[in-house]
């Protein structure tokens, strides 16, 4: 009998070891049905789209005449120097854009069936707000896809991109042709209008039921219920003002030289949409006095919380309480930074004198042997040149090749290539602690939309539509009025003879407006797209300046072909889907 | 469906009990001979769950008798040199990565000592592995360890000691040459030089090495000429007819080639014990038990010396700063000395700079050490019941095993400060006037537990075996096997690296075989495999194989041939189902993930974001291996010539892909989300011929044996999820290991040459950069101009072994080779740009003067992505033959020993390992960059038996 027991024992052992052999260990996989019962999950479908918004500090300037980078492997550098193809596109928005639209369509299709909260009034408000955000974001993403991929196709038509208003499941027909440029613009405006109709202009708490905006008055009666959904808890989510600002952006783009034949949008519409935004802050009087140094207004930055915006800001990212990433990336080597953004001499020359004249103007008083004397204060605010002082200890920075410092041109791999470093976007009180190798960060944020941009949008559109001194029907100020205010803020001059000179010449005024845009919005991701929408020369070589020898030299050629005004449709998609036409030149 | 398996297992239990009771009733009847022990031991080959006489083997199976091989070829590890004996094996089997089984259990064999091993069997064909189920579908290496014998107690010992001699070190330029050429690179890029002539001159003079450093990593200051490895083994075995036992006890020790700082103490120590016992409990029941214990201790000083040797430029910093150069009047400097924890040899501070705040030298001198400890415990028990009393020829075997292995590190780390000196000339003498410090010296008193891993494997099998001969010619074999194993692991105390899911294999093996007079063979072997990785309903599949064999040499027309001793052909068809290539569980199920996060209102509000991570595919199924194979075994000329050849044609179908390139749009996937499902889509094809031929002869006192093995191997990607504009870019229709790159047309001669050539889209080009062919003629050179440049794996691999014996002297040699593959010289040693360390290869750089003779592109300080990408310029033919082993053995003649002498056997041997590489690219092949060098190993050993 003992034998039997022994053998049975062996058997039991072998059987016991095979538990779990037949089923996988349990995992929690969630599907979209969770949306109906878990409102946080449902909101997560919507908020994930915010993650795809492009970064305004993306440094596309590396690929323009405004800057180069010492990061030799940088994709924008590669793109600008001949690597840009339909299969290598560092400014592609196809995946992020349509990825976001997929999740937004998922949300829009289900939002009405989500059990947002028990209280039906509040539930309806939540549904309004979130759908408003979703429509608004769908318009925003289609704008970005259109900007980066729209253009003249191989058959000569100005085409937009496919418009997707429904979730594309794995059984869908993916062979969708591109919509016309005009249809895309109309779709974007329609989505943004939908958002504007559903959303409050800003998410402000109301003190009593009487202050509840009209469109919500017959839905909600308690101000506490209104505040719960539409109050400042929602700060920095998409609101009506942001949707309106994107109407200004899309109309300005569509009216621009590169797109005007086919967009069915005129400069007057761009001016009107821009004025709609500006009227809310009281027009020109709403121009923030310190708006041009938004990144370094110490007391303003240190006081930020709860998603409140400084007057300059229309939409921004969250504050980062101890940020040093911009400084560690862009400080010169002597301040332990990587010196990545190297502004060009081209950009430096675009800054006027402090009297407002361009340096090439006979009345400017520019002295090429003292190139940084009596210049627009924005130059020293935005750019580090030879002899600038920087950082907590006002460290002098010398960039001339004979200076013998690590900051000199091409000295180290993190030294400048142009003789300049970027100072904009940086706080001077961020500091590297050499003893423990850590950065001491400061509070800062990355803006998404500054009012200055909308002012410049208005000025550009109004000058084209009504001339330098004309105003749109919904505004009382002209392009000249706007530029005067911006230059007064920058230069501190009320008497601006060069502006007066331009105010009688629409073409000169256009150049001035474009130049002001280049300076005010420098290093914020605009130049790359502005040059294209204006159809300007893309191949201006990036130049540098050696203070030791007073020599101007070419740093990097720009190797764009003529067709590169418009970006490519992704190579892989054109191969897969026969209905998808490539843009001209990219095939 | 699990019930099917449970039911099968229940049947076993019932049958077993029946057997037990029947036997009990007949206990007094004796003289039952166990079937399993019935076979003659000499010519047995270990096959799946069984042993087989060599002449009856039907599959593509090769076996190496390690026990005997060791007498003429002492090797450390069991799998060393198998390539020289087995055709079709290159580490992979027929191009695929095999399952390694030690005594039938999945175990790591990379550290398995050769003295413990009796034989290694390589199971190549699908019909040979099918009984092991899904995870064995790419081939099996079956290692069988030694067991006791029915003989008097025998003690066998071995001792070895040997030296590792580095083959070669990289040749980097010294500091003055580096700086001169870096200046040239700066000139090429049109940027200012950063090294002055004075710096270069002072560095070259070598008289002021601390101010003008020129560090050579491969100098005798840091490295020994050789290092030593020694080992000793004692085997004790013996037994009577009831009980046999075997014990193997061994240890080994080696130090390291680095002798600097803490790394001078680097060492590896290994200790192991293996024991097993076979017991005949009653006339019908036997049992055996095996145990194995192994300890490995490694000690290593901190510091990535080899890694840094490959990128730290020689002039980059001063590793040691002499205190004597510090300005003695400067109290700040003297304070640094007083407060430093790390005054090296009483004379130096640790050097560094802004970019090199810590470095390998300082690490070795001041950062501490790590002790790695690995522990392995393995147990196995089996019971074998002869059930011949129930049904003649029936037996039952049941085995159960548990393996544990455990790995952890005890580490000690000390932070330290490094200093960058500022030099000045004071009264004609170099003096350090200030020091910039990086980091702080710390006082650490704690050793802490680092990395830890734990792994457990349990396995079992139950086997019902039926083997009987009727009328002396009808041989019938049947097998029913339930086999399974499960491995689990955990990594680190927080389990962050653990695999939540275990590795499983569960299957039922069925075999029915018949042979008529060892002349005509038929075999059906199959497996019912189960995979929990597939959706319910698709989890069980049958893998059938059919094999036939025919011994022509037993037919009348060949029977009397004096030339042919044995000639047998076999053919098989198999269709295996496997889940090895289904890398994870639940791949069929789509899901959404809410682990991301989005915040607003300045981070005071926020919530989880919900993203799709995968699309669903409820039809996901097994990957299939469909194989046709034909084999030939022959022995000729009085068995002086032995031949084995196999042809195989193997399709792997239904490999998973996500359809991202042919079906779904690109926005279906981003780094943080995916809507893509997994689908069975891709198909691979492998075909080839493997062979092994050996010839032996004896001429008086002289004996020799020569073996040649090899494989001709081809593969093809038959179906792929891909779309290319130009057909030549398709991977479909090309070998699986096709390597794509550009066709180089030499260097650009001048600007006119550049202007007239197609636009290259990898960055700005200058004269001296590489010119690539615009293959599709679209005026642009981009990824679309990559073409198939050759195979990265060798289409022909071979091995040879040679034994010469004269009286008591034996000379053994073996080698292995490959040809037909290509590679690229694309390591940082060859692709020198930017701030990389300059190797000797840059000396052949392009300059306007050397335009016609240059062997290397112009130097550059940028990353120059134009030149440094795989192209024909960097391609080389990866053909080589390696003489892996030569050993000379002297066996003291038997006449020296008699019954009274202590010794019964004594041998001495010397050997050399990896002695020679024959190749056009030998220099490159013998050089390691960024890791420890390759070594030749010279060993002296003795073997004695008592």
UniProtKB/TrEMBL annotation, chain A:
SUPFAM superfamilies hit by this protein: TPR-like
Entry annotated with the keyword DNA-binding: no
Chain ranges of the RagB/SusD domain: 312-586
Any Pfam family matching the protein: SusD_RagB
Signal peptide: 1-22
Localization (cell): Cell outer membrane
Annotated family: Belongs to the SusD family.
Protein name per UniProt: RagB/SusD family protein
From TrEMBL, chain B:
Organism of origin: Zunongwangia atlantica 22II14-10F7
The protein, known as: TonB-dependent receptor plug
Record-linked InterPro entries: Plug_dom, Plug_dom_sf, TonB-dep_OMP_SusC/RagA
Signal peptide: 1-25
Residue span(s) of domain TonB-dependent receptor plug: 55-140
Keyword Ribosomal protein attached: no
Keywords carried by this UniProt record: Receptor, Signal
Highest rank taxon of the organism: Bacteria
UniProt keyword annotation of Cell inner membrane present: no
Pfam families: Plug
Gene3D superfamilies according to UniProt: TonB-dependent receptor, plug domain
């Amino acid at each position: 009998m003992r034998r039997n027991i022994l053998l049975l024992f062996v058997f039991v052992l072998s059987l016991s070891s095979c538990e779990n052999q037949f089923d996988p260990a349990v995992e929690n996989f969630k599907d979209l049905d969770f949306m109906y019962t878990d409102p946080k999950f449902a909101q997560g479908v919507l908020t994930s789209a915010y993650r795809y918004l492009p970064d305004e500090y993306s440094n596309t300037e590396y690929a323009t005449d405004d800057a180069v980078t010492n990061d030799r492997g940088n994709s924008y550098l590669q793109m600008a120097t001949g690597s840009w193809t339909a299969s290598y596109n560092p400014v592609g928005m196809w995946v992020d854009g349509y990825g976001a639209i997929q999740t937004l369509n998922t949300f829009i299709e289900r939002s009405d069936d989500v059990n947002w909260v028990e209280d039906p009034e509040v539930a309806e408000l939540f549904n309004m707000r979130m759908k408003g955000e979703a429509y608004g974001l769908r318009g925003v993403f289609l704008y970005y896809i259109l900007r980066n991929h729209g253009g003249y196709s191989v058959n000569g038509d100005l085409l937009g991109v496919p418009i997707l208003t429904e979730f594309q499941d794995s059984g869908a027909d993916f062979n969708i042709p591109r919509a016309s440029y005009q249809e895309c613009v109309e779709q974007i405006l329609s989505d943004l209008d939908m958002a504007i109709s559903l959303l409050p202009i800003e998410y402000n708490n109301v003190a009593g039921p009487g202050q509840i905006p009209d469109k919500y008055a017959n839905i909600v009666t308690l101000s506490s219920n209104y505040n719960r959904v539409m109050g400042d808890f929602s700060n920095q989510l998409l609101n009506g003002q942001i949707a309106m600002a994107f109407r200004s952006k899309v109309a300005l783009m569509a009216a621009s030289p590169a797109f005007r034949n086919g967009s069915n949008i005129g400069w007057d519409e761009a001016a009107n949409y821009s004025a709609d935004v500006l009227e809310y802050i009281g027009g020109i009087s709403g121009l923030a006095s310190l708006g041009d140094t938004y990144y370094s207004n110490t007391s303003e930055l240190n006081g930020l919380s709860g998603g409140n915006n400084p007057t300059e800001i229309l939409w921004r990212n969250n504050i980062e309480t101890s940020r040093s990433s911009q400084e560690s990336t862009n400080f010169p080597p002597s301040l332990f930074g990587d010196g990545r953004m190297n502004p060009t001499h081209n950009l430096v020359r675009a800054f006027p004198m402090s009297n407002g004249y361009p340096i090439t103007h006979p009345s400017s008083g520019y002295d090429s042997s003292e190139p940084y004397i009596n210049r627009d204060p924005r130059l020293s605010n935005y750019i580090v040149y030879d002899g600038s002082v920087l950082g907590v200890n006002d460290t002098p920075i010398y960039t001339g090749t004979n200076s013998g410092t690590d900051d000199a041109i091409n000295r180290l791999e993190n030294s400048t290539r142009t003789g300049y470093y970027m100072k904009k976007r940086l706080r001077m009180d961020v500091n590297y602690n050499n003893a423990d190798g850590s950065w001491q960060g400061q509070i800062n944020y990355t803006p998404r939309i500054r009012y200055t941009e909308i002012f410049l949008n208005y000025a550009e559109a109004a000058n084209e539509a009504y001339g330098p001194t004309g105003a749109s029907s919904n505004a009382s100020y002209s392009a000249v009025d706007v530029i005067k205010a911006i230059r007064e803020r920058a230069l501190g001059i009320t008497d601006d003879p060069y502006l007066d000179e331009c105010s009688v010449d629409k073409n000169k005024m256009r150049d001035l407006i474009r130049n002001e845009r280049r300076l005010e919005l420098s290093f914020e991701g605009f130049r790359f797209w502005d040059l294209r929408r204006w159809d300007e020369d893309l191949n201006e070589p990036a130049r540098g300046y050696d203070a030791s020898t007073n020599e101007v030299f070419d740093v990097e050629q720009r190797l764009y072909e003529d067709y590169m005004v418009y970006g490519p449709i992704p190579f892989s998609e054109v191969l897969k889907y026969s209905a998808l036409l490539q843009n001209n030149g990219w095939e | 469906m699990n019930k099917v398996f449970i039911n099968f297992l229940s049947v076993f239990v019932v049958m077993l009990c029946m057997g037990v009771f029947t036997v009990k009733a007949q206990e007094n009847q004796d003289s039952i001979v166990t079937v399993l022990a019935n076979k003659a031991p000499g010519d047995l080959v270990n096959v799946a769950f069984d042993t087989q006489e060599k002449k009856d083997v039907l599959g593509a199976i090769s076996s190496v008798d390690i026990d005997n091989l060791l007498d003429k070829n002492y090797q450390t590890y069991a799998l060393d040199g198998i390539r020289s004996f087995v055709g079709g094996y290159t580490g992979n089997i027929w191009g695929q990565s095999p399952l390694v089984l030690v005594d039938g259990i999945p175990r790591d064999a990379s550290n398995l000592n050769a003295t413990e091993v009796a034989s290694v069997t390589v199971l190549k064909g699908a019909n040979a592995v099918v009984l092991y189920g899904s995870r064995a579908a790419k081939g099996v290496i079956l290692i069988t360890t030694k067991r006791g014998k029915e003989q008097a107690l025998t003690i066998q010992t071995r001792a070895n000691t040997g030296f590792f001699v580095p083959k070669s070190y990289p040749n980097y330029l010294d500091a003055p040459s580096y700086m001169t050429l870096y200046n040239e690179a700066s000139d090429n890029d049109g940027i200012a030089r950063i090294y002055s002539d004075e710096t270069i001159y002072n560095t070259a003079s070598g008289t002021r090495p601390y101010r003008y450093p020129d560090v050579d990593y491969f100098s005798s200051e840091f490295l020994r000429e050789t290092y030593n490895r020694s080992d000793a083994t004692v085997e004790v075995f013996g037994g009577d007819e009831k009980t046999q036992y075997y014990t193997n006890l061994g240890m080994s020790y080696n130090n390291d080639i680095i002798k600097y700082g803490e790394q001078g103490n680097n060492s590896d120590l290994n200790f192991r014990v293996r024991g097993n016992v076979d017991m005949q409990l009653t006339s019908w029941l036997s049992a055996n038990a095996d145990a194995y214990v192994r300890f490995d201790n490694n000690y290593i000083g901190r510091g990535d010396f080899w890694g840094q040797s490959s990128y730290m430029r020689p002039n980059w910093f001063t590793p040691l700063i002499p205190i004597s150069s510090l300005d003695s009047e400067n109290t700040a400097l003297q304070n640094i000395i007083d407060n430093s924890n790390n005054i090296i040899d009483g004379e130096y501070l640790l050097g560094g700079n802004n970019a090199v705040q810590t470095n390998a030298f300082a690490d070795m001198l001041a950062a501490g050490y790590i002790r790695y400890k690995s522990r392995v415990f393995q147990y196995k028990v089996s019971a074998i019941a002869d059930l011949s009393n129930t049904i003649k020829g029936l037996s039952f075997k049941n085995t159960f095993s548990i393996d544990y292995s455990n790995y952890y590190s005890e580490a000690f780390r000390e932070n330290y400060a490094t200093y960058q000196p500022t030099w000045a000339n004071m009264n004609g003498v170099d003096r350090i006037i200030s020091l910039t410090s990086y980091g702080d010296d710390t006082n650490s008193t704690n050793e802490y537990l680092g990395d830890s891993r734990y792994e457990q494997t349990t396995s079992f099998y139950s086997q019902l075996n039926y083997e009987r001969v009727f009328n002396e010619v009808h041989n019938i074999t049947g097998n029913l096997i339930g086999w399974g194993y499960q491995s689990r692991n955990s990594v680190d105390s927080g389990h962050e690296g653990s695999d939540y899911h275990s590795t499983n294999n569960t299957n039922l093996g069925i075999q029915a075989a018949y042979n008529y007079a060892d002349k005509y063979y038929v075999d059906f072997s199959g497996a019912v495999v189960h995979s929990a990785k597939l959706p319910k309903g698709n989890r069980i599949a049958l893998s059938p194989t059919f094999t036939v064999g025919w011994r022509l040499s037993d037919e009348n027309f060949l029977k009397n041939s004096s030339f042919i001793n044995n000639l047998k052909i076999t053919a098989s068809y198999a269709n295996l189902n496997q889940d090895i290539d289904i890398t994870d569980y639940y791949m069929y199920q789509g899901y959404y993930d809410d682990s991301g996060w989005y915040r607003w209102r300045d981070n005071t509000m926020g919530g989880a974001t919900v993203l799709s991570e995968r699309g669903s595919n409820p039809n996901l199924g097994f990957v299939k291996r469909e194989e046709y194979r034909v084999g030939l075994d022959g022995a000729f000329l009085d068995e002086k010539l032995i031949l084995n050849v196999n042809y195989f044609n193997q399709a792997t179908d239904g490999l998973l892909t996500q359809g991202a390139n042919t079906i779904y749009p690109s926005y279906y996937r981003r780094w943080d989300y995916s809507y893509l499902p997994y689908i069975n889509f891709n198909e691979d094809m492998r075909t080839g011929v493997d062979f092994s031929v050996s010839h032996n002869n004896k001429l008086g006192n002289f004996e020799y044996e020569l073996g040649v093995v090899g494989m001709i191997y081809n593969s093809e990607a038959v179906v792929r999820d891909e779309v290319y504009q130009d057909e030549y870019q398709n991977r479909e229709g090309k070998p699986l290991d096709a390597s794509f790159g550009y066709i180089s047309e030499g260097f650009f001669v001048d600007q006119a040459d550049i202007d007239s050539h197609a636009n290259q889209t990898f960055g700005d080009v200058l004269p001296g950069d590489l010119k690539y062919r615009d293959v599709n003629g679209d005026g642009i050179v981009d990824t679309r101009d990559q073409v198939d440049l050759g195979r990265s794996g060798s289409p022909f691999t071979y091995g040879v072994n040679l034994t010469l014996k004269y009286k008591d002297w034996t000379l053994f040699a073996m080698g292995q080779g490959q040809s037909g593959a290509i590679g690229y010289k694309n390591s940082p040693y060859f692709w020198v740009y930017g701030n990389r360390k300059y190797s000797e290869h840059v000396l052949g750089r392009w300059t306007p003067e050397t335009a016609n003779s240059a062997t290397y592109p112009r130097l550059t300080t940028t990353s120059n992505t134009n030149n440094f990408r795989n192209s024909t310029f960097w391609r080389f033919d990866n053909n080589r033959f390696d003489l892996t082993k030569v050993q000379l053995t002297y066996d003291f003649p038997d006449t020296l020993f008699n019954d009274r002498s202590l010794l019964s056997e004594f041998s001495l041997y010397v050997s050399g390992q990896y002695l020679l590489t024959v190749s056009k690219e030998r220099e490159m092949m013998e050089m390691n960059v960024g890791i420890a060098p390759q070594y030749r190993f010279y060993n002296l050993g003795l073997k004695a038996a008592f």
